[in-house]
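Running log. JK asked me to keep both predictions on one page so they can be read side by side. First protein, sequence followed by its C-alpha cells:
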Amino acid sequence: MTTESTPVMVCKNHPTRETGLRCNRCDEPICATCAMRTPTGYRCPQCVKEQQKVFDTAEVPDYLVATLVAGAMSFVGGLLATAFGWFIIFVAAFGGGIIAEAVRRVLKGRRSKRLFRIIAGATFVGGILPALPNVLGGIMFLAMGELGGLAAAGFSLLWPLIYAGIAASTVYVRISGIQIGQ
C-alpha cells in the first residue's frame, strides 16, 4: 500500500511558513499574514498593489489644482460661516457637496486615495483661514492680559471650525465614494 504525500506549499514571501492558501489572482501560495481579503477572495500584497494602480489615476497637477479649488471655495464658505451663525450647521454639508462636485469636474474622474485626503484637508484649512485674524487678535489680547478679548476671539472661531469640519467630511465622503446607510 503506497501513500502519495502532497507537496508542502510555502508562502512566496515567507519561505519558512507552510500554507494551504493561494492568491486568487496569481495562484501563488500565501500565508495568513500576507493574505489580503478582497471582495473576490484572498490576494497577495503584490497583486493588490498592481490592482490599486488601476484605481489610482490622478496625475501630479491634479493634486495642486484640486487643492486650490477646494481651498478657495472653502475659504468663501468660511467667510460666509460667520454671517450664517448657527445656521451654518445646516448649510455646511450643502457647501461641501458643491465643493466636491466642483473638484470632481476639475479632475475629470481621476482619483487617488491620497488625493481624497488632500482635498478634505484643503477644504478644512480653507474654511478656517478667514478666522485667522481673530485668532491673531486673541493672541494679542492674551499678551496684553485681557481674557475677555481672548474669549471673544475664541468664540468667533467657533462657526468657521464647525463649517470647516462638516464641509471637509462631506467633501471626503462625496469624493472618495464612501456609501453611507446602505
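And the second, directly underneath as requested:
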Amino acid sequence: MMMNPTIYIETTIPSYLAARQSSDVIVAGKQETTRLWWNTRRPHYVLTASQFVLDEATRGNPDAAQRRLQLLADIPLLLVDEEAVSLTQLILQAGVIPQKAAFDAAHIAVATRHGVDFLLTWNCTHIANAEIMRTVRRVIENAGYAMPVICTPHELFGGESDD
C-alpha cells in the first residue's frame, strides 16, 4: 500500500486558519481556501512541521498564538539537525532570501533535508516565489538534495478522478 504524500506545513497555514475573518477580500479568500483545503484535502496527506513553525506560531497576539499552536499540536516535527542548518546557510548565502527572513530559508531547508513531497505556504515573498525558487532549487540540487514542490493550498486540491 502506498503511503500518502508528505507535506511540510509552513507557519502561514495555521496563521490563516486561526485568524479572524479578514475584511481584505484577498486575505479572506486565502483564509477560505485554506479552511477548505484543511477540512477536505488534509486527510490525503501526512502533515509535518518543525520547531521553526512552532517558534513563529507563538509570536503576536496570545489568543491567536494559542489557536495556531492547537492546530499544530498533533503534527509531528521534523528534526532540525546539522544538515538542515547547513542547507539553510547555503540558501541564505545564495542571496535571494535576506538574512531577516532566515526562517523562510530554514523552512525550505528542513522540508528538503527530510525529503518531504510538498511545502505548503502562503508566503509568496520568499518561499512560493518562482523567481527566488530558481536560484534556491539550484543551490539545493548542487548540495545533493531534491527540493519539495512549493505551493499554496489553492494549488493542492488534487485532480479529477473516477474513484
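Observation for JK regarding the second prediction: Helices lie at 12-18, 25-40, 51-57, 62-72, 82-93, 102-113, 130-142.
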